Amino acid sequence: MKISACxxxxxxxxxxxxxxxxxxxxEPSVAQGKDASPSxxxxxxxxxxxxxxxxxxDQFDQxxxxxxxxxxxxxxxxxxxAAAARTASLESSTRAINIxxxxxxxxxxxxxxxxxxxxxxxxxxxxxxxxxxxxxxxxRELAALEAVVSLGGSYQVNPQLRGVISFVPTxxxxxxxxxxxxxxxxxxxxxxxxxxxxxxxxxxxxxxxxALDCLQNLPQLGRVELYGTRFSKEAIEExxxxxxxxxxxxxxxxxxxxxxxxDGGQNAHVVDVVPDSAAxxxxxxxxxxxxxxxxxxxxxxxxxxxxxxxxxxxxxVELTIVRRGGDQELQTMxxxxxxxxxxxxxxDTLPELRKMNLERR
Length: 361
Known about the structure:
The protein is of the alpha+beta class and about 350 residues long. It folds into 3 domains: about 5-10 and about 35-145; about 150-160 and about 170-250, Alpha-Beta Horseshoe (Leucine-rich repeat, LRR (right-handed beta-alpha superhelix)); about 255-340, PDZ domain (Pdz3 Domain, Roll). Helix content is about 30%, strand content about 20%. The chain is built from 10 helices and 13 strands. It has helices spanning about 5-10, 45-55, 60-75, 80-85, 90-105, 110-120, 125-150, 235-240, 280, 300-310, and strands spanning about 155, 175, 195-205, 225, 250, 255, 260, 270-275, 290-295, 295, 315-325, 330-340, 340. The strands form 3 sheets. Strands 7, 8, 9, 10, 11 and 12 form a 6-stranded antiparallel sheet that branches. Strand 9 and strand 10 form a beta hairpin. Helix 2 (about 45-55) packs antiparallel against helix 3 (about 60-75), helix 3 (about 60-75) packs parallel to helix 5 (about 90-105) and helix 6 (about 110-120) packs antiparallel against helix 7 (about 125-150). The longest helix has 25 residues, at about 125-150. It is elongated, with a radius of gyration of 27 Å.
C-alpha cells in the first residue's frame, strides 16, 4: 500500500537538525528516553545498523538507548526498522514496531505516512496492521491539506452547506484554489487524497477547463464555487451532468468579495460582518441595511450578491446604507468600499490525528 507520488513529493519534508553533539562513546548523542523526536540526531548507515543489532542486546539499558536513537534518527532508519519489524527476533521486532508506532503519531506527516504504510503491510502483526490501515487514509488526508496550502491554496474546516443536514458528527473541508495557486493542473490530484472535501472553490485561479476534472472523484462533494474563472461556458454547462450528486454550483463572473452575511429576507440586511474584510474596512456594521450600490437599488441579499459580482477585486463602489442610530432614528449614509477578492487563508487548525491506541510492549 503506497501513497501517491504526488502527495509524497509535495508534502513538506522535515528539516533535519545540523551539527549534533558527540558523546564520549563516539556516537551521536540523543535525549534519553523512548520519546526522542525524529531528526534530533544525524546518523550514518553504520550507526543505524549497529543500533538495530543492539535492539536485541543482552543489556536492557543498551536496548533502550538503541531504540531511542533509532526513533530520533527518523526517515533514514526506515528501511532497517521495517525489515527488523518483519523478520527479527521477538525482542527486536517488538521494539521496531514500537518505533514505527511512535513515528506514526508524530508531527512529521511524511514520516507518519511512511510508518503507517509499513505497519499496514505487516502480515506478522495483524492487530497493528489493521489499525494502521484505518489511520493511514486520515494521515494522507492531512498531508494533502498541508500540501495544498504549500502550493498557494487554502482550506476551511466544516463549511456550512445550505439545505444539507447531517446527524453524524464528521469533519469536512472546503478546498480553495485561488489566484495564488502555483501547483498547476497536476497538483489538483491532491484532492483525491482529501475524501472529506465538501466544497471546492475556484476563485480566479490560473487554470483552464481541464481543472474541473479533479471534481469527479470526491465522494462527499456537495458544492462547487466558480468565481471569476476562465473556464469555458461549455465546460461549466457540463458540470451538472458530470457531478450529479453536487447540490449547488455557484457561478459568478468575478471573485469580488464584500464580506458580509445576510438573512435571506426581503432586503439586504447585514447580520454579520467578516472581520478585516472589505465591508469592515469600509465602515459597514452589523444590522445595517444596504439599499443601493452605485445608485442602483438593492432589493435583497441575492440581488446584492449578483451586483457585487459585476465588479472586480480592487474596484471601489459606493454603498448606500440605512443604519439605526443611538436614538433609534434611521440614518442614511454613503460609504465608499474597496472590494477584496474571495480566497481566505487557512486559519483553521487541522484536526488532531487519531492515535493508534495500541499498547507498547
